[in-house]
Amino acid sequence: MQTAVATVKCIDFRPRYLDQMVELGEERFGEKYTSESKLRSYIEKKDNICKLAVNGEGDRLLGFFLMHRTSVLGLAKEFKMKAPEIERVIGDNRKICVAKSLVLQKDVEKGGIATKLAQRGLEKAKSKGFYSCWSPLWIRKDGAIPAQNVIERLGFTFYKIVHMLWVDDEDYKCIDCKGPCKCDAAVYYKIL
């Protein structure tokens, strides 16, 4: 059942929401999707971006959006692609970021919060001088791609399907696979 949220605030990361972020990530994506230490390490990196959506009172985390800086070689490794295929899209522009996670509480989906979160994250990425943003969208076993509408609404272009993108993360137990993640990813990119 969808919960109406009168006021939503999009804010930069605040440590008080760490526990709720871990809980939400695991609930929506699976066991060991993230942890407090992984999130702290992620957020401490200078060019990484973490946007939170909280209710008007600020006591409940509604969702979060994580982005990180990478290089052509880093992107190639992370997305199981080859550097020349990335370079065909970005040319000599080396300032690249990855939209890693976009997640919402189930009861607030379809209310525009994900779009607002991603939009704020992309604005911040552009202000930091990033040229392009790449995003691996989870393709569930039923074929649904949860963030597809949001990403396409924000002007991302479909690039390719990557087979079993997350299978190498041995600790992560995907909620769809009930164990190591064998899900595919739809890779999208956007020139900022």
What is the rounded Rg?
16 Å
The share of residues in helices is 25-40%
Number of β-strand runs: 9
Shape: globular
Compute the number of helices.
6
Structural commentary:
With 192 residues, the chain is of the alpha+beta class. Helices cover 30% and strands 30% of the residues. It contains 6 helices and 9 strands, in the order βαβαββααβαβαβββ. It has helices at 18-29, 36-44, 72-78, 83-90, 113-127, 148-153, and strands at residues 8-12, 30-31, 49-55, 61-70, 96-104, 132-139, 157-162, 173-174, 184-191. Strands 1-3-4-5-6-9-7 form a 7-stranded mixed beta sheet, sandwiched between helices. Strands 2-8 form a two-stranded antiparallel sheet. β5, α5 and β6 form a beta-alpha-beta unit. The chain is globular, with a radius of gyration of 16 Å. The model has no long low-confidence stretch (mean pLDDT 93).
What characteristics describe this protein?
192 residues; two-stranded antiparallel ribbon; alpha+beta; 30% strand
Q: Secondary-structure blueprint of this entry?
A:
Layout lengths: L7 E5 L5 H12 E2 L4 H9 L4 E7 L5 E10 L1 H7 L4 H8 L5 E9 L8 H15 L4 E8 L8 H6 L3 E6 L10 E2 L9 E8 L1
Quick summary of this structure?
The chain has 192 residues and is α+β, with helices and mostly antiparallel strands. The chain contains 6 helices and 9 strands, in the order E-H-E-H-E-E-H-H-E-H-E-H-E-E-E.
